[in-house]
Amino acid sequence: MGAEGEILKGNARPSPSHLTKDQFLSWKRLKDAEASARKEEVDRKRAEDVAAGRVELNGRELFLHEPWVFDNTRY
Q1: Is the pTM of this model over 0.90?
Q2: What's the rounded Cα separation, in Å, for the pair 75 and 72?
């Protein structure tokens, strides 16, 4: 049992409960920035694919790019 205690005490990894508020907020800002950059890249690629005609349009994109499809005054 003494050897196990030595191993546990020798563990140098910090405990997750010792995270300060500043460390958490810094991590959160970094994660939010990464998520935002990833979303912007996906949106940019989708817009390029829509403009090139490589993907099918969903309802919102169809309404934005071809509003004449939804013109009910012609009927």
Answers
A1: no
A2: 6
47: nearest Cα among 60, 32, 33, 34:
60
3 state SS for the chain: CHHHHHHHHCCCCCCHHHCCHHHHHHHHHHHHHHHHHHHHHHHHHHHHHHHHCCCCCCHHHHHHHCHHHHCHHHC
Q: What tokens were used for 23? A: 């460390």
Q: What mean pLDDT value characterizes the chain? A: 84
Task: Decide which of 66 and 16 is more confident.
Answer: 66
Residue 10's pLDDT is 58
